[in-house]
Structure formats: C-alpha cells, structure tokens
Amino acid sequence: MIRQATKTDTHTLAELALQLWPDNTLPGLQAEFETLACSGEAACFLLFADDAPVGFAQCQLRHDYVEGTDTSPVGYLEGIFVQSEYRHKGFAKELLQECEKWAKEMRCSEFASDCELDNEDSLNFHLSMGFEEANRIICFRRKI
C-alpha cells in the first residue's frame, strides 16, 4: 500500500530517509520533512508492506532551471528508497508513479531527477523507468 505522507509521518519518513542519506541526522531530516509538509510545493509518499513502512519517495516542484527541461515548474524526484528485502518487486516504480501523478496535479508537464555519477543502481532504475539522461557533470569547490 502507498499513501501520501502527512505531517504526523515526519519521524517515519526521517527514519527511512536516514537509510538513503546516512550523512544526515534523524532530527535534521525530521525537521526538513516538517518544513516540506507545510510548503505546498512538495509531497512524500510512504510504502507499507505487512503494515510496516518499508519505503518512501520525496518529490517537489523546482522553479529554477532543471537540466534538460523546457518548462517551469518541473516535478522533481528528490529521493526514493525501498528497503533491500522489498526491492525488485515493482514498489519503487509505484512510488515514482505517485510522484508523477502529484506533479501532473500541480500542472507540471515534465518530471526530472538526478543521481550521483557512481550510483549504478539509481542510474539503472531511472533508465528502466523511462528517464532519459540529460547531462553529466562534476561539480568543483575550493576554500578561499
């Protein structure tokens, strides 16, 4: 079962998101999801199996330029995660479809995403879901 998350789900979302983004903290992620829940510009969806949360997807509107797109706003998949024992069962595809449905309801005609250059699992998922690669970049920084 998949349902859109509400403000009462922020702790659950943060626990799942911490598995995807381990460099964050549980309180930090929970605060971020609380902010998103009130923004009207984002949506999160929770995946349940056997009445337990086992995955999530976060999407939002991007009004800045999104690589390879021609319109604004663009629906954007910010993150998607399914616990390992529930992968390869079509759940990530279902979560993605919920995000795309939400973006269409928000009057988007394009949907985009990204992944790290070395994340082959994410790259393969995106390609298998019909995404087209728009660009590859390496970002640089230095302290001055």
What is the helix/strand order?
EHHEEEHEH
State the secondary-structure class. alpha+beta
Q: What is the number of E strands?
A: 5
The percent range for strand residues is 15-25%
Low-confidence stretches at least 5 residues in length (pLDDT < 50)? none
For the sheet with most strands, the description reads: 5 strands, mixed
Q: What is the topology, as strand order, of the major beta sheet?
A: 1-2-3-4-5
Q: Whole-number average pLDDT? A: 94
Distance between the termini: 50 Å
Helical proportion?
25-40%
Figure out the total of helices. Answer: 4
Radius of gyration: 15 Å
Indicate the overall shape.
globular
Task: Please provide a written account of the structure.
This protein has a five-stranded mixed beta sheet, sandwiched between helices. Strand 4 (74-82), helix 3 (91-105) and strand 5 (111-113) form a beta-alpha-beta unit. With 144 residues, the chain is of the alpha+beta class. It is 34% helix and 24% strand. The longest helix is centred in the last third of the chain and has 15 residues, at 91-105. It is built from four helices and five strands; from the N terminus they run βααβββαβα.
